[in-house]
Each structure stands twice: as C-alpha cells, then as structure tokens.
Amino acid sequence: MKYNTDKVFNSLIQCLLTTVLSNEERVFVVEYVFREGIRYADLRQEQFAGKFPETPVPHRNAVRRLIEKFRETDSVLDAEQSRRLSKLNGEKLMDISDSMLWSPSKSLHKLAQEEDIRLTTAHKTVREKMKLFPYKVTAVQELKTAAHEKRIRYSEWLTNFNQMKTVDILDVTFFTDEDWFHLSGYVNTQNTRLWLSENPHALHEKPLHDQKLGVWVAISRRRIVGSLFFKETVNSKHYCSMPHDFIGLLEEDEITYSWFQQDGATVHTANNSMKILNEIFGEHVISRNLWPPRAPDLTPPGFYVWGAAKSAVYCDCPCKLNELKTAITTYIRNITQADMQKVFANKIKTVQACIDTRGHHFQHLS
C-alpha cells in the first residue's frame, strides 16, 4: 500500500497543534463547531484565522479529538494533567521544594525518580509551581585570595592611566598574548549537539601527536599587530626576538608613545626578556608587579581574540598547517578598527566591573 507521505506528515503536525491551543481558542472552536452541527466548515477555519492570526489553524482531526474530549469531560481543559498537578499540593509539593532547594544541581530525571512522579510532572512543578529556571555554570580561571587585591590595584591604575590627556593612550597601548591553534580543531562537547533521529555515537578523534601553531598578537584600540607564528614552545631566547619584530611593525607615533603589556609567564619575565623590553620601551612596560596573575578576563586577547578566532578558523576545517596559518592570518587582518573600538569599550567596562566586585569574578554582571 502506498501513502502520500507529505499528506501524512502534514496531518501529524497539524494534529499536534491542538496541544498548544489556549483555552480561549479551544472554547472558540468547540462553540462554533457545535453551531454548525458538529461540522468544522471552511468558514469557521477562516473565522479562527481572523480571530487568532498568530496561531496555526487546527486540523480537522485535532478539532475532532477536542470535540470528543468535550463530550467526555464537559471541559476543553487537559483534565488529566490538571489532576496530576493538583495532587502535588501540600505535603508532596513541599517534599519536591525541599529536595530542589537542598540539591539545586539535581536533574529532573533524578527528581522524578526520587519523588515517584512523571518526568513531565516534575518539569511542570519545578517551572510552573516553584518558578525555578535552569542556568549554566560558567568555567572561569581560579582566583587565589591574594589575586583580588592585585586585580583591584591594576584596574584602578588603568582607570587613571586611561585619563592621560597627552595622547589617546589606549590607541598606543598594546596588550599581548600567545595561544595554540591545533590542526585537529576544537570541539566543545558541552555545547556541540547533533540533532538526528538516532544516536550516531559521533566521536572527535585527536591524534596522539597533534600538529599545532602558536600565535602571538599585540592589540591596541587602533589595530592588531601580528600575527607572529611559532611551532615550538616559546623559550626566553625565542621570546626576546618578538619585541624587535613587533617594533618593526609599529607606526611613528606608536614607537614614541607605545606601552607594552604582557602577563607574568616565566618566559615573559625572565631577566633576559625584561632587559630587552626595558631597552625598547623603558618604563612603558605593563608586566610583573603591575599586571595581576590569572587575569585573562582583563586582556583583549584573552576575552575576545582567541575565542572569536577559533570559532571562525575552524569553520572551514583546515587540513594542513599552511591552511590553518592562512585562515588565522585572514581572520586577524579582517578585524576592523570598529571592532577594536568595541573591544576596548568593553575593556573599560570589565576594569570597572573588577573594581566593583573587589577583584572577584564579574562575568555574571555582563
């Protein structure tokens, strides 16, 4: 026997629409259908569409089931669901409330199992009765107690620093960082989902010796300088060559007024590295003793460049290192000055948020 699959599919979809009709819409359908002698005439469908333009017109089969429900229960409401929820009044509802307050990370499946109720009932109770909503946990860099004061000190210093009138200082202040881009790409298993009819048991394979590229950039409110690439772990000797390469890419006013920021990594603050930086930038170095530890949320490469770059670069699934390098270079070059203005406007906000939270995490305030 052959079926018109499109017709069957559309009928099934339309039958499901009755579950989303409001009480007012259900009453309208039942009232006017009975007036027509239990006929769902085309005229009534047009009237429904005119009165409720935001709701798809229910299919005849959905209306037939609604009429049958009305005949059996003298009501257009979902009586069975109403009875289930009404059972949760009193002591049972208190048990569920206590269970969720005691363990807010508990899954609804676990709650339904412990309280011997249906999953749909658990969901409705938590959302509709208790007014609870699911929130994701954000992974952030661990902050030691001693780091709070250093974060505040830096944030207050930068606030005053930004008010210097001799030059638009953030236009010539370069925040630097390096990161690794792996050829195998990156998959966030927490957020990546495959919507299929069956579980494909998809795997993301990572080679034992993954090929990767290191990237170093320096970013100011005016522009990004770089990218500078490396394939091996950066040591002090290798790092000392980067400031010279960097200076060669600066404009005249940037050379005169530039400030250079780096984090407190050992390779950055080694004696040889600091000697080179002091020779080039003098006192215009934001580094050890001023830059706080564990502060990727305060530097533009940390809170903007790397995440955005990886999201863009891996879209085309580069298969070779030179393709990966080209994709990174293209992305960096396409970052506009307007983008930089937005990034540094956000930089000022994050610094103020750090002060407001007394050096603690502030991501929840954005």
Structure characterization notes:
The structure is a single chain. The protein is an alpha/beta fold and 366 residues long. It folds into three domains: 5-77, no CATH class; 82-129; 147-191 and 208-365, Ribonuclease H-like superfamily/Ribonuclease H (Nucleotidyltransferase, domain 5). Helices cover 51% and strands 8% of the residues. The protein has 16 helices and five strands. The protein has helices spanning 5-16, 23-35, 42-51, 60-73, 79-86, 91-102, 108-115, 119-129, 145-161, 236-247, 252-257, 266-269, 271-281, 300-313, 321-333, 337-356; strands spanning 173-182, 212-219, 224-230, 259-261, 285-286. A hairpin with a 4-residue loop joins strand 2 and strand 3 (224-230). The model is unreliable at 1-19 and 81-86 (pLDDT under 50).
Keywords summarizing the entry:
5 strands; 16 helices; single chain; five-stranded mixed sheet; alpha/beta; 366 residues; Nucleotidyltransferase, domain 5; 8% strand
Which SSEs are present, and which pair or pack?
Elements (H helix, E strand, L loop, with lengths): L4 H12 L6 H13 L6 H10 L8 H14 L5 H8 L4 H12 L5 H8 L3 H11 L15 H17 L11 E10 L29 E8 L4 E7 L5 H12 L4 H6 L1 E3 L4 H4 L1 H11 L3 E2 L13 H14 L7 H13 L3 H20 L10
Parallel strand pairs: 1-4, 4-5
Antiparallel strand pairs: 1-2, 2-3
Helix pairs in contact: 1-4, 7-8, 9-16, 10-13, 14-15
